[in-house]
Amino acid sequence: MAERDMARHLVDAVIADSPDHKRGTRPAHTIGIGVKGHFRASPVARDWCVAEHFCGREVEASVRFSNSSGSPVQHDGWSDARGMATRFHLSGGGATDLLAMTLREFFSATPEDFLAFAQAAIPRPVEPPRPWRKIADMLRLFPPLPDPYPGQRTSSVGGSMAYSGLHSASQLAAFDASFLGAPVSYARATYNAVHTFIVTAPDGTERYVRFFWQPAAGVEMVNPDLPPIDNYLQAELRDRIANWPVEFLLLMTVGEMGDPLTDPTKAWPLHRMRINMGTLCLTEVPDDQQAHCEQLAFNPGRLTDGIAMSDDPVLIARKAAYELSRELRGGAACPFDAV
Ligand code: HEM
User: Fold this and answer.
1) Closest ligand 1 atom, CA of 66?
2) Is the separation of the CB atoms in 160 and 170 below 8 Å?
3) Distance between Cα 221 and ligand 1 center (Å)
4) Is residue 128 over pLDDT 80?
């Protein structure tokens, strides 16, 4: 299928998963907050990758934290993956983006599989929890589903879990997403870029790597036994940054022989070597959230010399899909690159 046609199908599929999607907004990760700061490479980063932001000079950074749902209704307290999109501002007005989320793996290994998964995950009506239903499900060995939240009328969890029962590649992400919960703060979650990238070292050596952000404040989730609270994540981040910078460590996992290089449904083993590539320090929540959050358009294909995409078909398809999504919602084009 032509790249642009697949992009259209992907964006349509994402929109279909959020029936209350509002035109002019992001069809996924709709609710978010933009923050600013800087990134300083670690002393060893330049030995591993020649990309400009890893070569010592501090660079400005724009970050957007988000809830992954495409619904315009916030529901911070609901179980959902969270996103962290980072733009590193480079010399001459250039930029490179890194998009990450709180799941360790993705739902699908190809864009075609994602279309089928998204179809299965279209939200369906949910019933309030009933004890007899839980017992019947337990006896039939049905996987337990999380109870709907107060006021929740539809959910994609049943559909995605049923799909993953038949498609093993989707299982890890679908199970993780169903029971993930909510972080106490956007600053207290680990965000994974999921795909494999190829970095070039100063001697020309190319390595397969994956990136993730580790929060300096540590990881903490909301206690699932307490009643869910809504709409706290943005205020919490504002308070936190007003008092002290929020820091994240950028870690790069180096792949080894046999690691899946083109499949984002498979996380790499936890004991792989990780390189500390630098520290992101977030210091400001800009007042103009329209310009510094809503209008921004990140793209996982916006890379710079020294970092290249692997042959991961999902990563490749995302490049055109995000550009189409940006066009559809009227986001600002990046004038300095040809994404
Ligand atoms: C086939 C796979 C995927 C599709 C079709 C897809 C689609 C989209 C779309 C259409 C948007 C809105 C873009 C915009 O209007 O600016 C978006 C946002 C986003 N996606 Fe994905 N996505 C996919 C996979 C992923 C993966 C694997 C990750 C994590 C590594 C991810 C993380 C994000 C984040 C963090 C945002 C919000 C960016 C922002 O704050 O502007 N997505 N996605």
Assistant:
1) 40
2) yes
3) 23
4) no
**Residue closest to 212 by CA, chosen among 81, 92, 76, 103:** 103
Q: How do the domains of the chain map onto residue ranges?
A: 3-113+170-329
C-alpha pair distances (Å), 191 with each of 194, 211, 254, 312: 9, 9, 17, 19
What pLDDT does 135 receive? 80
The two three-digit tokens of residue 25, written as one number = 């907004």
pLDDT tens figures, 207-222: 999 999 999 999 999 9
- Testing ligand 1's pocket by substitution, the residue of 15, 101, 113 carrying the most ligand atoms inside 8 A of its CB is 101
Instruction: Please state, in angstroms and as integers, the Cα–Cα distance from residue 222 to each residue in 37, 229, 285, 334, following that order.
Output: 26, 9, 23, 36
- Report which DSSP code applies to 259: -
Q: Containing H/E element for 28?
A: none
CATH no. of 3-113+170-329: 2.40.180.10
Tokens 């498609």 identify what position? Answer: 167
- C-alpha dist (Å) from residue 165 to 117, 181, 192, 204, 243: 12, 21, 24, 44, 46
Nearest residue by C-alpha to atom 8 in ligand 1: 28
Question: Which residue ranges have their beta carbon within 6 Å of ligand 1?
Answer: 10-11, 14, 26-29, 32, 64, 66, 83, 85, 99-101, 106, 111, 114, 193-194, 264, 296-298, 314, 317-318, 321-322, 325-326, 329, 331
Q: Cα(42)–Cα(275) distance, rounded to whole angstroms?
A: 9
Q: What is the CA radius of gyration of the chain?
A: 20
State the distance from the centre of ligand 1 to the C-alpha of 298, rounded, in angstroms.
9
Least confident interval from 45-59, 62-76, 150-164, 317-331: 150-164
The residue type of 258 is G
The mean of the pLDDT values for the chain is 93
Contacts of 196 (CB under 8 A, 6+ apart): 208, 209, 210, 255, 260, 261, 262, 264, 310, 312, 315
Q: Which ligand 1 atom is nearest residue 322's CA? A: 13
